[in-house]
Specification:
single chain, 215 residues, 30% helix, globular, ATP binding
Length: 215
């Protein structure tokens, strides 16, 4: 997924103002009051390369949920990828043991996602291009993503399904895909303020702005 131009990111300002009050701070994080860019990118590893969203998403999950301080560069090095070619869930799964984790990919529907108790990496299509993002909040009608291109964004259920339901199996309700990541070591502790079952809804302005996510 190509990095979104800065001018498009500005359109998300309305969403970020709403989200500011519930973005959690981890122990080592501080933000400047009214700094919307810091709020937008809080607890998100931003991608530095055209196709490194998968690496950045894993780095976000391992760093801010599991507290392991893993960089995008660390993930790309393990993948033997320079960030210019896309990766798959299978490739991510293979390198996770190097960091003390294991991964498993699943096909799922929205109801299955709602049962999750941990953040996961989701595969989506943005403007027809492959993209990975971290799902860090979900309820009946709202999804919160920690995205390596956009930062923290919230989508309505309908908006999320438009980009997440990529499996073309008409005989199944499991039209989306996600990668679950779990530690293999007992001393790795998860943050209790990264994932939520109560993501806040966005304003009408934010809903219109997030239309740039659609295919």
């Amino acid at each position: 997924m190509k990095t979104i131009k800065f001018i498009l990111l500005l359109s998300l300002f309305g969403t970020l103002r709403i989200e500011a009050e519930f973005l959690p701070l981890l122990p080592t994080q501080t933000i400047v009051k009214n700094d919307w860019k810091s709020l937008r990118d809080l607890s998100v590893v931003k991608q530095n390369f055209e196709s490194s969203c998968g690496g950045a998403s894993l780095a976000t999950l391992l760093t801010f949920y599991y507290g392991q301080k893993v960089s995008e560069t660390d993930i790309l090095k393990a993948l033997e990828n320079n960030g210019k070619k896309a990766v798959s869930f299978s490739e991510m799964q293979k390198i996770l043991p190097q960091f003390g984790f294991q991964g498993q990919g699943y096909a799922a529907g929205y109801e299955q996602l709602k049962q999750l108790k941990i953040p996961v990496v989701v595969y989506i299509k943005l403007r027809g291009e492959d993209h990975f993002s971290v799902l860090r909040g979900i309820n009946d009608d709202t999804v919160w993503l920690a995205d390596s291109s956009y930062g923290n964004v919230t989508l309505s259920k309908e908006q999320f399904l438009e980009v997440w339901q990529t499996r073309q199996n008409e005989n199944s309700d499991l039209k989306g895909k996600f990668l679950a990541v779990l530690p293999t070591k007992t001393d790795i502790k998860a943050a209790d303020n990264f994932f939520t079952k109560q993501p806040k809804k966005q304003t009408d302005l934010a809903i219109r702005a997030i239309g740039i996510l659609r295919n």
